[in-house]
Design a protein that fits this description.
It is built from 12 helices and no strands. By secondary structure, it is mostly helical. The protein has one domain. It is globular. 42% of the residues are buried.
Length: 266
């Protein structure tokens, strides 16, 4: 079984247990059945030997795992949101970030919005970058990325918050209205579960992909890590995530990479 299989299967089991505890009625049954089916499919598919399956199937498991967490997000924890906002406001006051966003050249804000979108390219492209290096590189890559992102999604049933842009009044970034922000909103409107993940799955995926590539292609990995830093800044400036989300997302990615490195050395 490929290493990403047990990771995805474990996530499915965790989500099924979370549904049994937190949900009621038809949603409980639907999420439990879907999560068990997800776990079984991940375990089964990960046993196939075809190389192309291990290039594509983990990406599908990543998307499926994210969407499975959607039914848990209808009851935001307002007290947690207030705590997260208070930290953001203290940091913003100390750094003067509101004034910076209000005065920054428009191309800087556009670049940050493009960077936020680039997360999807970094995660998907990272697998393609290590593909020529052999199946072990691809398997290790997805073990790190899935381990990081699914950990973030597994927390969603228990830490339920809305993104800061949905909680606070419109700020400087809304007044500047970067064009590419509309593209990000279109993607989020159609493809997201309309909730905030703590830790940030967006940041965890980008950092995890960068670290996974760095294990095999150091220079390329460093370049991707620089892009991941921009993604992290964009997540906060664009009010897609709180500062705490971003920091925890990066830490989760570091842990996932360390676990995979330990496995390789053992």
């Amino acid at each position: 079984m490929a290493p990403w299989g047990p990771i995805a299967a474990t996530y499915g089991v965790v989500l099924a247990v979370s549904a049994a505890v937190r949900l009621r009625g038809w949603r409980r049954a639907a999420v439990m059945l879907g999560s068990i089916a997800y776990a079984g499919a991940a375990a089964w598919i990960s046993m196939f030997s075809a190389a192309w399956i291990h290039l594509a199937a983990p990406g599908a498991a990543l998307l499926g795992g994210y969407w499975l967490s959607g039914p848990f997000v209808d009851d935001p924890q307002v007290s947690v949101e207030r705590w997260l906002l208070s930290i953001d406001h203290r940091i913003c006051t100390a750094t003067g970030c509101r004034g910076w966003v209000a005065r920054a050249p428009h191309w800087v804000l556009e670049s940050l919005e493009v960077a936020y979108t680039a997360d999807y390219v970094v995660v998907g492209g990272g697998a393609l970058l290590v593909w020529p290096l052999g199946s072990d590189a691809v398997l290790g890559y997805w073990a790190i990325v899935l381990g990081a992102e699914l950990t973030c999604y597994a927390a969603l049933p228990w830490i339920r918050t809305r993104p800061p842009r949905a909680v606070e009044p419109p700020g400087a970034i809304e007044l500047r209205d970067p064009y590419f922000r509309r593209l990000n909103f279109a993607v989020l409107h159609r493809a997201s579960v309309h909730a905030n993940t703590i830790p940030s799955g967006h940041v965890a995926g980008a950092v995890a992909a960068s670290l996974a590539v760095m294990m095999h292609l150091p220079a390329v990995g460093v370049a991707l890590l620089a892009v991941s830093a921009l993604i992290s800044v964009a997540a906060v400036v664009g009010r897609y995530h709180y500062v705490v989300d971003v920091i925890l997302g990066a830490l989760v990615a570091l842990v996932a990479a360390a676990v995979e490195a330990t496995r390789l050395l053992s």
